[in-house]
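User: Is it possible to get a 3D structure for a protein together with its bound compound? The compound here is xanthosine-5'-monophosphate. I've pasted both below.
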Amino acid sequence: MSANVRPQSMERITTEKLANAFIEEQVAELRKQIGNKKVLLALSGGVDSSVVAALLIKAVGKQLVCVHVNHGLLRKGEPEQVIEVFRNQMNANLIYVDAVDRFLDKLAGVSDPEQKRKIIGAEFIRVFEEEARKLENIEFLAQGTIYPDIIESAGVKAHHNVGGLPEDLKFQLVEPVKLLFKDEVRVVGKALGLPDNMVYRQPFPGPGLGVRCTGAITRDRLEAVRESDAILREEFAKNGLAGKVWQYFTIVPDYKSTGVIDGKRSWDWPVVIRAVNTTDAMTATVENIPFELLQHITDRIIHEVKGVNRVLYDISPKPIATIEWE
Ligand code: XMP
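Assistant: Yes, that's possible. Here is the predicted structure of the complex:
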């Protein structure tokens, strides 16, 4: 698949049968392109990179080297799932890089949102580059580029990309899903046997929980974001909202207010819930979460998440608000 334009004749992949035909064709093409060389892939655990990994594992097995960088801003359970699915179940060649301290140390005291994004993006490239330099005989770099990334030049991924690998580390690109739309990538992922919670995952920004821990990131507040997000996801899954609402998450602003615990005043953070629906992320409306469920989620968050004494529900549409808080 070398051209960047989707042929008019290309059928939309909507069924397992069509996905299997696509997989078969891609596997043959990837084997031809890669031969007995090695391929490198930054595997975040998101839908696109996971599907690319699964395709390449099927095509060239251990010639694929996946690098999963844990920058400390991933959701609860994500690095563990990447290891479980790709290393343990698919027997992939997976390098897990624990870069948590490195990222959080670099981000300490940085409150400007754009600066935070730049640091996360640049540090990611640096960590990936270091890992790439340790490896020998890599000729290809696989990427989870999908069709909207190509046609929307101002698309989310293109817009947020920070730099790239240095000149001496230029590899030939392998982009097996670059002509597919997101829904097709999901159908292919399912046919490749990836778990549902990976295939139907809601969108997650590259800088991860970093943009939801507003202002300067601290480890304790980041933990409050991660834990409250996990509770929200668990409750959405239990109550049938997980596949229905486009994006839902929590934010912990860098702001405290008073509360009362055991007759004593506390001074803690609020958790903000965001749950929106959209088709293209350019505009968004707010999900009407049933009030009883909101109360139950609130109850769990204020009792289970350390350092939190309030829960707020952000009911602002985009525009004027954006989906994320930073
Ligand atoms: P906003 O906040 O601009 O978000 O309404 C629109 C969509 O884009 C995602 N988003 C990002 N994705 N890197 C990404 O890969 C980023 O820096 C970033 N910022 C926002 C956001 O989650 C939403 O789906």
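The chain has two domains: 16-199, 212-313. The domain at 212-313 is CATH 3.30.300.10 (GMP Synthetase; Chain A, domain 3).
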